[in-house]
Amino acid sequence: MTKSLETIGKVRALPAVAALARREWVRFIRQRNRVFGALIQPLIFWALFGAGLSASFHPQGPDSPMSYVEYFLPGTIILVVLFTAIFSTISTIEDRNEGLLQSVLVAPIAPTSIVLGKLTGTTILAVAQAAILFLVVPFAGFSVTLSGAALSIALLFVVGFGLAGLGFAIAWRMDSTQGFHAIMTAFLLPMWFLSGAFFPPEGVPTWMRIIMEVNPVTYALAALRQVMYIGHPEFMGPLPSLGVSLAVTVGFAVAMVWVSATVIRRSRFVS
C-alpha cells in the first residue's frame, strides 16, 4: 500500500513540475515589456560596460590577447542568469499574496515538486536570455566554438538552478517585493560583483579576496570561462580548476534546491 502511494506521488509530481514551469514561461511571454527587456538588457550591459572600460582596463596585463569585452562576456552572461533568477522568483511573493501558493501547498504533491517546477521555469527563462549573447559574439570580432557554446549552456542550467533556488528561498520568506529588492541590492548583486566578473581577483585586498574565494558565484563564473573559452588557455587566467569549479557549482545548486524544499516543508507545518 505504501509503495502504491509512493508511485502515485511520483506520477503526480511530473505533471506538477511541468505545469509550474510552463506557468513561468507563459507569464513571461504575455508580459511584452519583460520580453523586450530580456532581449535588450544583455546587449546593453555588455556593450556599455565593455566599451566604456576596454580602453583603460586590461584584465590580464597590457600584453594579453584578451580584450576587456571578451573578459566581461562570461560575467555578463552570469549577470543575466542572476537577474532573471531574481526577478522571476519575485513571482513567488505575488503568487502567495494572490492565494495560488496556498492552493498548491495543500495539493498531494511533494514540496520538492513545487520547487523543481518553479526553478525549472525560471532556469529555462534565464538560459534562454543568456543564450542571446552567444548569437552576437561573432559581430564583436571574436568567436566561441560550437562545443564551447553547448557546454556553456549546459553549465548555465546548473548555475540557473542554484541562483533561482537562492532567490526562491529568500522570496518565500518575504512579505513584499520591496523587501526582496532590498535583499537583492544588499546581498545578491555583491555576489556578482565579487565573483571576478568585473575585475580579476589578483591585486585586490586580502579581505575581498577571501570573500571572492568563498563566493559560489566565483566558481560558477570560473567554470563558465573554462568551458566557454575551451582551447584558449590564454583567455582564462589564473582560475580554480574546472573540477573544483564544477563540484562547487553543482553542490551549490543541490543545496539551494534542498533549502527551498525545506522552507516549503516547514511552512506547511506552520500553516
Structural summary, described in words:
- This protein has one domain (2-270).
- Helix 2 crosses helix 5 (111-136), helix 3 packs parallel to helix 6 and helix 6 packs parallel to helix 10 (242-270).
- The chain is 77% helix and 0% strand.
- The protein has ten helices and no strands.
In which range does the helix fraction lie?
over 70%
Structural class estimated from helices and strands? mainly alpha
Q: What is the overall shape? A: globular
Q: Tell me the strand percentage band.
A: under 5%
Q: Compute the number of helices.
A: 10
Largest sheet: none
From the structure above, extract its key features.
single chain, 271 residues, mainly alpha, globular, disordered N terminus
Summarize the topology.
Blueprint (H helix, E strand, L loop, with lengths): L1 H29 L1 H22 L14 H31 L1 H6 L5 H26 L9 H27 L4 H17 L12 H9 L1 H13 L13 H29 L1
Compact summary:
By secondary structure, the protein is mainly α. It contains ten helices and no strands.
